[in-house]
UniProtKB/TrEMBL annotation:
<feature type="binding site">
    <location>
        <position position="110"/>
    </location>
    <ligand>
        <name>Fe cation 1</name>
    </ligand>
</feature>
<dbReference type="InterPro" id="IPR000358">
    <property type="entry name" value="RNR_small_fam"/>
</dbReference>
<keyword id="KW-1133">Transmembrane helix</keyword>
<keyword id="KW-0408">Iron</keyword>
<keyword id="KW-0479">Metal-binding</keyword>
<comment type="similarity">
    <text>Belongs to the ribonucleoside diphosphate reductase small chain family.</text>
</comment>
<dbReference type="InterPro" id="IPR009078">
    <property type="entry name" value="Ferritin-like_SF"/>
</dbReference>
<feature type="binding site">
    <location>
        <position position="107"/>
    </location>
    <ligand>
        <name>Fe cation 1</name>
    </ligand>
</feature>
<dbReference type="GO" id="GO:0046872">
    <property type="term" value="F:metal ion binding"/>
</dbReference>
<dbReference type="GO" id="GO:0009263">
    <property type="term" value="P:deoxyribonucleotide biosynthetic process"/>
</dbReference>
<dbReference type="GO" id="GO:0004748">
    <property type="term" value="F:ribonucleoside-diphosphate reductase activity, thioredoxin disulfide as acceptor"/>
</dbReference>
<feature type="binding site">
    <location>
        <position position="180"/>
    </location>
    <ligand>
        <name>Fe cation 2</name>
    </ligand>
</feature>
<keyword id="KW-0215">Deoxyribonucleotide synthesis</keyword>
<keyword id="KW-0560">Oxidoreductase</keyword>
<feature type="binding site">
    <location>
        <position position="214"/>
    </location>
    <ligand>
        <name>Fe cation 2</name>
    </ligand>
</feature>
<protein>
    <recommendedName>
        <fullName>Ribonucleoside-diphosphate reductase subunit beta</fullName>
        <ecNumber>1.17.4.1</ecNumber>
    </recommendedName>
</protein>
<dbReference type="InterPro" id="IPR012348">
    <property type="entry name" value="RNR-like"/>
</dbReference>
Length: 334
């Protein structure tokens, strides 16, 4: 009997032989990007953050940095909780579970990254960790994801009927495609644009590592969604596909509102309307990745973002340790 979910013949303890080799490949890709926040030097960031007068960050840049630290500091824990409490329980296939454990570990690293950045810069945790309650554009993103992933968090939810398999796929799309695939990307573009101007280079490098991890999470999530749909083709109705497309469109609008709130007047080389174009470009890629037609047809205004995702770890500064990780697998990002 085949089946990535809902398979009574699956023994979750028996990983070999593999049924879904892509799950194992994503695991290896995750290992190949192994890192911890303490490996990134933060001295320049501390100096720049405290500097006043000539060469100091502008109020617009500070606002953008604080908003992104505020969004990510709680979003990483939200994704970790969803993963462990809602997704792991239902995905019984052992190689997928092995990947989910790796991803959960990476989310713990990401949560730790924002503790580390906040501590290093001397930020007030009461401010940063309350932004998801106090900043409407952050709150709306979090509430949208919580609403979209509600059924799988119900302890009595079981995926025995086609309706519930469809509900599960819907929630996976909310979690993987919209949260990790859209709601993180305006923040990535903003912080990496700053890095390209040699500002907050330590925080920027942390975001680079997170972006590479997240691109693997998104890829695993898309393969998981596609495998469930391939095994349960009846759930992929025209109405359901339309609903998913509408959800993704709504996700782009919420992320757009967040970017405008982060960047009300723009900063050097970056304006919220260009981020909107980038969001439309990536939303089309997310749709196509789960076999849905694109809806925006926007060209990529930030080709350097794809270069960062594709950059291999040995191009980063701590070259000595990279070879060990590289033996684990071949890095291929999409
Ligand atoms: Mn993460
Ligand atoms: Fe993630």
């Amino acid at each position: 009997m085949k089946g990535i979910i809902n398979n009574p013949t699956t023994d979750p303890n028996k990983i070999l032989p593999l049924t879904y080799p892509w799950a194992r490949q994503h695991y290896k890709n995750g290992v190949a990007n192994n890192w911890v926040p303490e490996e990134v030097p933060m001295q320049q960031d501390v100096e720049l953050w405290k500097r006043q007068g000539i060469g100091a960050l502008t109020p617009e840049e500070r606002r953008m940095i604080l908003y992104n630290l505020g969004f990510f500091s709680t979003a990483e824990s939200l994704t970790a909780n969803n993963l462990v409490l809602a997704i792991y329980r239902h995905v019984t296939n052992p190689e997928c579970r092995q990947y989910l454990l790796r991803q959960a570990y990476e989310e713990a690293i990401h949560t730790d990254t924002f503790i580390y950045c906040g501590d290093t810069l001397g930020l007030n945790p009461d401010e940063i960790y309350n932004m998801y309650n106090q900043i409407p554009s952050i709150k709306e993103k979090d509430e949208f994801v919580v609403a979209m992933t509600q059924s799988v968090l119900d302890p009595n939810f079981s995926i025995r009927s086609p309706e519930n398999i469809q509900r599960f796929v819907h929630d996976l799309i909310g979690f993987y495609v919209i949260m990790e695939g859209i709601f993180f990307y305006a923040g990535f573009a903003m912080m990496l644009a700053l890095l390209r101007q040699n500002k907050m280079v330590g925080v920027g490098e942390q975001f680079q590592f997170i972006l590479r991890d997240e691109s693997v999470h998104l890829s695993f999530g898309s393969d998981l969604i596609n495998a469930i749909v391939a095994e349960n083709p009846g759930i992929w109705t025209p109405e359901f596909r339309q609903q998913i497309t509408n959800d993704i469109r709504r996700g782009v609008d919420l992320e757009d509102a967040y970017a405008k709130d982060c960047l009300p007047r723009g900063i050097l080389g970056l304006r919220a309307d260009i981020i909107r174009q980038y969001l439309e470009y990536i939303a089309d890629r997310r749709l196509e990745r789960i076999n849905l037609p694109k809806i925006y047809s926007m060209a990529n205004p930030f080709p350097w973002m794809s270069e960062i995702i594709d950059l291999r770890k040995e191009k980063n500064f701590f070259e000595t340790r990279v070879t060990e990780y590289q033996t684990g697998g071949n890095l291929k990002w999409d």
